[in-house]
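A.,

Following up on our hallway conversation. Structure tokens first:
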């Protein structure tokens, strides 16, 4: 995996607040493309919250869209698709560390 992609994934998932939400969005979109409203319903989150995270993922070339306006569908970008295993490895490390902190604390 290119170092830049790895660094980007670490920042998107662990470096900023909302990383868990973005990871859940990525995992859900890997299952099937969705629009923001479908994601908000599925994840039981506010539509504006979902839009914020989708825009961040789009700005960083981790998602691509098809369609216009409210019907726009979100897909994983080719860059993220080709590095999905790396995403999963980073996600596993982060969740393992978080779970260990909860057990210790």
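Then the amino acids I'd put at each of the 105 positions:
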């Amino acid at each position: 995996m290119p170092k830049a992609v790895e660094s980007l994934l670490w920042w998107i998932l662990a470096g900023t607040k909302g990383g868990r939400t973005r990871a859940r969005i990525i995992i859900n979109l890997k299952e099937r493309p969705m629009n923001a409203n479908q994601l908000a319903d599925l994840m039981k989150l506010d539509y504006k919250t979902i839009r914020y995270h989708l825009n961040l993922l789009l700005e960083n070339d981790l998602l691509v869209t098809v369609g216009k306006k409210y019907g726009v569908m979100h897909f994983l970008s080719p860059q993220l698709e080709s590095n999905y295993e790396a995403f999963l490895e980073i996600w596993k490390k982060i969740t393992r560390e978080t779970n260990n902190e909860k057990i210790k604390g």
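The first helix runs from residue 3 to 15. Curious whether your intuition agrees with the design.

B.
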